Amino acid sequence: MVKYFLVVVLVLMSVLIYAQSSEAKPVIFDSDMGPDYDDVGAITMLHAFADSGYVNILATVASTNYEGVASVFSVFNTYFNRPEIPIGVPGANGLSLRDWQHWTDTIRAHYPHSIKNNIEAYDAVALYRKILARQKDTSVTIITVGFFTNLSNLLKSGPDEYSLQTGAELVQQKVKLLVSMAGGFPSGKEFNIKMDAASSQYVFTHWKTPVIFSGFEIGRDIKTGLPLINNQGINISPVRDVFQLCIPMDKNDSEGRMSWDETAVLVAVKGYQQFYTLQKGHIEVAADGSNIWNDAGEGQAYLIEKISPKNVQQIINEAIMHQPVRLK
């Protein structure tokens, strides 16, 4: 009887795991991972959602190419028990911006990672093409919380060993949604767009799938990280280490770090409806990286607050305290 019960439990667990994996949203995460540390909160949330069965992380891609950025991604993917996730790095036209607090060097020195140098990672465009070519049509959600260098290069790419389609054709066929932490609305001049303005212009002129923007104004009033660094139950964690190192170094972070990138992950995975409303239209990016919004445009939208930022703050604070699932 006991043996029968155990078999039933194992079967039910297998069905549950299969149901979760079959319903998991396929996601590619594209991040500058270095100039700021809200990227750390964002990748932590993504792994937390993956552990809950909401997403399948297809790839993690750097939009910066400073030496070591691939190994920073490797630290987090390894910590959350997904060292096999492929990592991409942009080519020669990638920006080399990195953190002034040196948290990237700190976690690389103290945590395991299988990828040591950028040369061991994929070329970003090749990785995008390889991953997208294998996915079902209109299935992939791309989350960008950095520069648009990779997406511009992808759109301009031609046929290769992975697909006979152009990059623009692959995107149109395989991508369901692009969610970007970028821009300021209804107008602004935001970091992620302006740092590679030419790529931003190209992407938002030629991108043919729906786009949702989480603008600068959305994450500005969401301050996170203090519950994480004050949680004495979390001892060995690169996530906690980063926030604990960086928050005291900037007086503007005394109430927690502004949480731009985390909001993009939240909306990409959980949807916008319970947190925000949408203003539909289309972004227009100038040569200097400033942006305005065209309400008459189509295919894109930016987030407008629906509930208090404090409520979203609580959700993100809880999510970034997520610990890796213990492996047996």
Task: Based on the model shown, name its key terms.
alpha/beta; 11-stranded mixed sheet; disordered N terminus; two-stranded antiparallel ribbon
What is the element layout, followed by pairings?
Blueprint (H helix, E strand, L loop, with lengths): L1 H22 L1 E7 L6 H14 L3 E8 L6 H11 L7 E3 L13 H8 L11 E2 H10 L6 E6 L3 H8 L10 H8 E7 L5 E2 L2 H4 L2 H10 L4 E4 L1 H4 L3 E2 L1 H4 L8 H9 L10 E2 L1 H11 L5 E10 L5 E4 L5 E6 L3 H11 L9
Helix pairs in contact: 2-13, 3-4, 4-12, 5-6, 6-7, 6-9
Strand content: 15-25%
Q: Describe the oligomeric state of these chains in a short phrase.
A: single chain
What order do the helices and strands follow?
Answer: HEHEHEHEHEHHEEHHEHEHHEHEEEH
Rounded to the nearest angstrom, the radius of gyration is 19 Å
Describe the structure.
By secondary structure, this protein is an alpha/beta fold. It is built from 14 helices and 13 strands. The protein has helices at residues 2-23, 38-51, 69-79, 103-110, 124-133, 149-156, 167-174, 191-194, 197-206, 216-219, 226-229, 238-246, 260-270, 309-319, and strands spanning 25-31, 55-62, 87-89, 122-123, 140-145, 175-181, 187-188, 211-214, 223-224, 257-258, 276-285, 291-294, 300-305. The strands form two sheets. Strands 4-3-2-1-5-6-8-13-11-12-7 form an eleven-stranded mixed sheet, with helices on both faces. Helix 4 (103-110) links the parallel strand 3 and strand 4 (122-123).
